[in-house]
Structures are given as structure tokens and as C-alpha cells.
Amino acid sequence: MQIPASFDYVRASTVDDALALLDRHGPESRVVAGGHSLLPMMKLRLARPEWLIDINELYELDYVLRDGNTLRVGAMTRHATLLASPEIFRLFPIVADAERVIADPTVRNRGTIGGSLCQADPAEDLSTVCKVLRAEAVIRGPGGERVLSMDDFHRGAYETAVAHNELLCEVRFPIRPRSGSAYEKVERRVGDWAVVAAGAAISLAADGTMDDVAIGLTAVGVAGTVTEAEDLLRGRHPQEDLFLEAGRLAALASKPIADQRGPIDYKRHLADELTRRVLRRAAARAAEAQEG
Amino acid sequence: MQISMSINGTDITEEIEPRVLLVHFIRDQLRLTGTHWGCDTSNCGTCVVLMDGQPVKSCTVLAAMADGHSITTVEGLATGAVLDPVQQGFMEEHGLQCGFCTPGMMLTARALLDQNPHPDDGEIREAISGQMCRCTGYATIVRSVQWAAAHPAVPEELAENAGEEVTA
């Protein structure tokens, strides 16, 4: 039987309340959102917070709303809510692609976008999605609010820029005209982590060339995006031979390790193949997209 | 700490340690052993209960997090001696063999039918994709849920029979 070590539990009612509690209880306190990463770690005693601050009542952080050319998503928005959002589906199909394969439907009822990003697991899907969409993280703390790019937000495996007395409150996605995006993951079974996954976003200029391209890989040790492949594609028209070369470059940039999910060669092959597939889909979606 | 919640429509207040998981609270403290405890890692789904009508894996929810919420366990599906159509469907279509996954499967099915009264087989398979039947009886589970969808109210003659079996 797996039971967490003892802790004290307190429920926060607002963001300010949560920040005050974090400040009062210090570095040995942790916030819990959906709990589907933290509670398993506490059961295995990989995490032993002395205080658990439950933020599930921060309904003020559960929203998807458009604000000019930005889509703002509250950190407590559940995976199930993101998957059901017509606005997300229309503007950022990559999010819907990824959400369909994150954990399973029951876990998606609890897990949140903020929790996924803060867990910063190297095999976590939304981290790649947010990088590819050039999203920003809005963090609040005693000193006020700061807004970070995903590159600055992610410090490494299981490590983010969020300090112990801060809270990730919002993720901001820039809305671009004539853009499309896609995500594809190979997993051994429903609910497992990715063997490898890839995500891509493409914005088209008026002449049909690729204004901006972002390519991300999950679970193969690539911290940022695959800039070598992005540079190759930028300014060119979407076409198959370019996507083939981009796939090859993505596989080269990947640094997979051999584990129970597969050997290195297989994972490199997947990085190549999945990159090509998401580029094709993202380009097709960009071609169909309206002004945004 | 003290927590209060509605369990199968009954309001309860209990004293717990904050680290107690909802599944153990339900089984060991409330003695509602219909909720099963399986993998302990939120993979198998036999511990699924409904929290405010949504399926959740109770091995990965603290009892403290359920404070103030409404929980439905498999014991709350039937109305008196009348089985929920999902329960009747599992009987009619042989939806269980060993029965270990059954409580979680039935609660997920109930939540699915509440949202989508006429799911296709793919939607049923998607809904239960976070749950495992180690007898591998998925085909009959899907048929059982389809039976429930086709019989939103259990026919009277079956309801009476079911009542006898439940009380026997």
C-alpha cells in the first residue's frame, strides 16, 4: 500500500490566499492542483512536503478566453476542459491533438495545464506544445507578476523558474493569422508516457511561404525547439522534400536514451517520421486557416 | 482534520489524517467496499468513483480534497432494489467475469451516459480507456453499456428479478 508521508493540509480560496500560505509555510510547502503527478510522487516518498496547499478552489484560474491576439488560459484549466474547448480546437489544433493522448479521460478530469507545465517532466506533452506555440507563462509571487517565455520557464527536467513562493497563474498563446499546428505521439498504450512525440506550428505569409515554423520533440532530450530544421523551412513554400529534410535534421538533433520504451535507433526513427507527419498536417491546417 | 461530504446522497462528517487517500477513506473508514483498490498508481481504474458526477481515480485523490464535494460509489448506483440500467446491462450482456474492474467500469459508464445518452462503440471504448479489465472482457463491457443506453429505464420485469437477486 502506497501512502504519502504525513503532512498538514490547507485549502487556498484565492490566488492571494495561496501566495500568502506559500510565503507563511516556506520551501517545505507545495501546492497541489489535479494531484496526478504530485500525489504519486508523495506516495513513493519522492516528494515529502510538510504542508500541502490545495488550489482546486481557485476557480478564478479556470478559464479559456480570447484577449485581442492572445488566447489566455488559466493555470487551473483541466485537460478535459481544454479538449472540449471549441476556441482551442479552432485556433490551436495542436493542443487538441495533444490533449487526446495525455493520460486517459479519467485522469484528464483532474489534471491541469498549470500542473503539467510545473511538473516539467521531460516526456510531458504540453511543454512541447507550449514551446512550439511560443507561449508565455504568467507567474505571480510576492513581488508581483512576471511573464516568461517557455525557454525561460523550463530550467531542465522537473525544474521550472517558478520559485517556492510563486504560482503559475496563466499561459498565454499568441494568435497568428494563416497558421496551423499539429501534434503526434507514439505511446505503448493509453495513459503511458510518449515513446517519442513531435509538435509543429507553421504561419504562412501572404505569398504562401512559411513565415514562421516551430518544431518540438517530446521525450528525446531536446530542451528548446529544433532550430536547425526551422531555419531550413523559414521563408520557403511548404513542400514534401523540405519536410523530409526537416525530419532528418530533427532526428539528428534528438538525444534519446535507450529504455523500456525502446532503443535509440527506434526513437530516432520516430523523431524523423513524426516530425514529417506534423509538418504536413500543420501546413495543411495553415493553408485552410482563416485570418485567426 | 474534519471533512464533510455527500456519499451516495447521504451527508457525512468524519475525522481523518490529511494523508488518507479517498479510496481508503471510502473502503476502510466508511466500509463501502464496493469501490475496489487496485494498482495504486492511477493506471487501472478499478477505484473510479464519481466526484460531482465526474469519474476520478480515488487512489490519486486525497479524502481531504473531496471535502465539500459529492461522491458516488457503486453502492449509490441502484435506487433501492432497482438496479441502474448500467448494472442491469452488465448482467444482461455478461459484462463481468471476475468482477474486479466492474465498479469502476460501471461508474464511468454512468457518467458517459449522463453526458452522452447514445454513445457509439468508439466513444464507449474511449471513455473506459483509462481502465483495465484483466479478464479482457472489453467486448461484453461495451455491449453492456450499449444495453444500458438502449434501456434508460430498466424494464419492470427485469427490475423485479434484479431486486430479488440483490437482496438474496
UniProtKB/TrEMBL annotation, chain A:
UniProt keyword list: FAD, Flavoprotein, Oxidoreductase
Classification via SUPFAM superfamilies: CO dehydrogenase flavoprotein C-terminal domain-like, FAD-binding/transporter-associated domain-like
Organism superkingdom: Bacteria
GO molecular function: FAD binding; oxidoreductase activity
Keyword Transport carried by entry: no
Pfam families cross-referenced by the UniProt entry: CO_deh_flav_C (PF03450), FAD_binding_5 (PF00941)
Domain FAD-binding PCMH-type: 2-178
Keyword Oxidoreductase: yes
Protein name per the record: Xanthine dehydrogenase family protein subunit M
Native organism: Cryobacterium cryoconiti
From TrEMBL, chain B:
Domain 2Fe-2S ferredoxin-type: 1-77
A molecular function (GO) term: oxidoreductase activity
Alphabetized UniProt keyword annotations: 2Fe-2S, Iron, Iron-sulfur, Metal-binding, Oxidoreductase
Pathway: Alkaloid degradation; nicotine degradation
Name listed for the protein in its UniProt record: (2Fe-2S)-binding protein
Organism annotation: Cryobacterium cryoconiti
